[in-house]
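Please, structure for the following, as tokens.
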Amino acid sequence: MRRDGGQTASDLLPAVVVAVVTMGATAVIARTSEPGLLPEWAGYLILAGTAAPLAAQRTAPARTLVAVMAGALCYQAFDLPGGAFTIAPAVAIFNAAGAGRRIVAVVATPVWALATYLLGARWDHAPDTQGMVWLATWLAVILVAGEVTRGRRERLRAEREKAAQAERAREEEARHRVTEERLRIARELHDVLAHSISVINLQAGVSEHLIDRDPRQARAALGAIRQASKDALVELRSMLGVLRAVDDDGRPLAPAPGMDRLRELVERAREARLEVSVTLPEARSELPGMVDLAVYRIVQESLTNVIRHSGAGHAEVTVRLTGRDVFVEVADDGVGVPGGGPLNEGNGLVGMRERVMAVGGEFTAGPVEGKGFLVRARLPVRSAAA
């Protein structure tokens, strides 16, 4: 309600101001001018009616211009005191040009000037050459001023739109980053929990089976459970504290796991009764953090799948490093795809694929001819580091 009322008041204000100024100036001019065909009060009424359409100049600038010029010509047709009646048309021309109705403004201006001249000639007081030059100059200035105003408004509108687009782009980027971070944390949690719980489950079964027959082996299995759970808790605390970047004691968090911890990963798999051979590059250059972590997680998830699903007795981990890429392969001698059906990618394979794609690499996974399953990934080093 207030907004509508405020908008109505702002629309009416120009019309009221122009009407007051026009009638005041005409009252001064009328003192030294001859009376026209109509009474003085009728002339003031026409002037008020001429200014009234300016209330609609914001919503209908072209029609406002036509109505104002018609009123001004009507005033002049009755040979009323001249001069001030041109104020309302000048305002209407300016507003029409400023609103982008340049064709209407450019066409209506000379038509109105010509009609003004002809009506003045009818009453034997047409403007002389100097008067017409001044009138033409004044109208040209008004048109140019309206065009400049329109250009400024369009620039401001374009700048506001550009700023709004930039803000929307920033918001979209922020949402994208939040989504990516959620996916990253989900992948991390899945990889850590799936691997550790798989090892714990297997070792718990071994311990339960050997607790009476071979307490020594059962104790070793319980120790492996203890170590796997401890490692999982350390990694979980590290991930849950990522927003603070420090641990509970205020110390910097341990760096994310990478290639330097692959042998620990292999040893843990061996403790789960899986024979694992590993081939790592002798000379290791420092890898970008995302690539280093991806190598570790790919091997971790692959060994987890071998332990949980493949029924394999042996797995082979190979990591090769060239000047441009890191190649990771994990192969096993298990059953491949159970039942020989199509490959069903679970969260583990999807997570590995997403990690590889995030750094611009290539990923394949599937059964091999004969027996077993192969996971293969190529991780570009340079593009990830850029």
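The longest helix spans residues 129-210. Strands lie at 275-279, 314-321, 325-332, 362-367, 373-380.
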